[in-house]
């Protein structure tokens, strides 16, 4: 099976977020970058699928030239090749979905399965996978925490479990399909040193698509008011235990 | 301005919030609907798209739940309109602007919505319900060629106190040090009738299952008390526990970010502090 996985480069924000002076981005001078946990799990899932069934994994990102780092990271854990849509600009979800569709147009049948993370870590738009599915006229399942296949050649299907209150809903969808997964579907492997070396030699197909006008146009970012909390230090070390238990009593949780 | 409101469940507090938001964005005219039959996201999205078009409604709103976001994303794809997920505010205008949640709530975004039919979900607890009763017209789902519906429901409804609903959550981070280290976290959770939570550092290390993870990509909790042990307080972790009424942080580093979010703090080694708290709780009262 050939699998395409779409990922996004995001900063590792740590304990607090700081904005740039124009308030249009996070100040990332001192930050590392990663792909969101949901997407890292999507790549791990794709790699496990081809280890079982054979095929290839292509990882795609829309992002700045630095996002090649994330593509190499994903190739280090087993993706075979990458598509890099290079852009320094902020794209909205409609533009992103259209660019992904355009990038694989003419080659749609090459990917029986397109995987996404359920929502991006930063923008959290909850819609790119669904828009891509509609454009390609494929079924789509989101929030997937377990994925299996019945590859009967006449009716190949994906069996997807979606977490809901009180259990998991099981969907059976014909392939080709689009699936958005969540962290927890697997535990992603760490890249090995040979994996990292191999990744440097894997092909990255880079292009720079023009950005359409944003329909949901970000104007500025705003930090929510901080909690305004003033911590009451109950003590240091085990001697603080009686003070803690007194508070637990006051809070009525004993 | 008529606003179509997708109501998943009239009993749900979040539905009341979404309706309140919808009444506030125009002249107050709302058309709340629930959709009959089994959940089928693409077909339900088509249903909303059809109703919005047939009845010439001006906007589509739902609660920012998993299903609210999913169904509105389908409707937006079908109508080829922008969709603002997890919106906290709407300012009318031509074009209107919205404020919406990013980074699981750690950041807000102000954006212009260039739409003929804006679609928006409402971030949970961004709006205080106006107190009007929640009622909705039940409509039949439209047909969509790519619609899929669940074939069955599986899975354990565990009898343990569930993380999401527990009144107390005792959560461990990298500072716990090992899977075995969670024995003292479990012990304290047991004594307080609470549930065990953890940070992503812990699930990544394989010490706890992902079902225990609190945060942006884990479970969001809002207990009466959240006890964070050996957790640094990364924004993505706080996205999952900032709804807690009270937060007690236990951390060896007095400068850790977690203390900026805490009501109470103890500075020191959790491996000494937690057993001492458990022993103190076990002491006979009044002794
Ligand atoms: C997109 C994205 C999504 C994410 N989603 C989540 C999420 O859902 N949930 C989540 O938790 N994280 C999430 N993360 C990861 C997050 O950024 C942090 O890396 C993670 O929360 C750190 O976990 P931690 O606090 O346990 O570990 P650390 O940051 O390593 O902190 C460990 C803390 O333990 C203290 N400590 C050490 N030893 C002791 C001791 N003996 N006694 C007391 N204290 C001690 C240290 O002082 C330190 O403060 C996400 C990251 C990204 C980029």
Describe the protein in words.
- The complex is a heterodimer of chains A (254) and B (287).
- Chain A is built from 6 helices and 13 strands.
- Chain A has a single domain, classed as Rossmann fold, CATH 3.40.50.620.
- Chain A has 254 residues and is of the alpha/beta class.
- Chain A has a 9-stranded mixed sheet with strand order 9-8-7-10-6-1-4-5-11, with helices on both faces. In chain A, strands 2-3 form a two-stranded antiparallel sheet.
- The longest helix of chain A has 17 residues.
- The model of chain A has no long low-confidence stretch (mean pLDDT 95).
- In chain A, helix 3 crosses helix 4.
- Chain B is 26% helix and 25% strand.
- The longest helix of chain B has 14 residues.
- The chains are: A alpha/beta (254), B alpha/beta (287).
- Strand 13 of chain A pairs parallel with strand 14 of chain B.
- Bound molecules: flavin-adenine dinucleotide.
- Flavin-adenine dinucleotide sits at the interface of chains B and A.
